[in-house]
Fold this protein.
Amino acid sequence: MHAKTIGLIAHTGKPGVAELINAIAREFARYSIPILFEKETAQFAGKKLGYSLAELGAAADLLVVAGGDGSILRVVGQLGENIKPIFGINVGSLGFLTCASSSTYREAVECIAGDRINFSQRALLEARVTLGDKRTGKMIALNDAVLSRVQESMAKRSLSSTPTV
C-alpha cells in the first residue's frame, strides 16, 4: 500500500511530542508526502489547519499515531466506519500495538515513504448496549471492550452520547 496522504495524530499529553510530530511532518515533507493533522495535534504543533478523526479517516491513506497503545485504541474507537491502516510511533513505555519508537521516527518515515511496511490484520469488536428501550450506537473497539455497571443517571447520559473506547 503506497501512502499518498498521511493523517497525523498525537497524544498531546506526552512530553516532547510537539517536537516529535513537527519532526515527523518535516520528514514526510522531504518525501513530498502530504500530512493532514488531527485538530488537537495541529493546535499543539502550532499548525493552522486540523481535521476531526472522522475527516482524517476519510481523507488519509495511512494514520500515523504518536503515542502509545491507549492512543491507538482511542483512535480506532473514534474512527468508526472510516478505519484506515495505523502506524504507531511509541512515545512512552508500553507499546505492544506500536510499530516504532520515537527515537526511530526517521527510519519509520523512510520505510513508509518507500512502501516497505507490512500490515497485520487485527480483529475489531463491535459492541452495542441495550438498556430498556434505549440502545447505544455501534461502538468499534480493538483489543477489548469494557462493560461496567453505573448508576442509572450515568447510564442515561452515556446512552445519549458516543462512548470512547
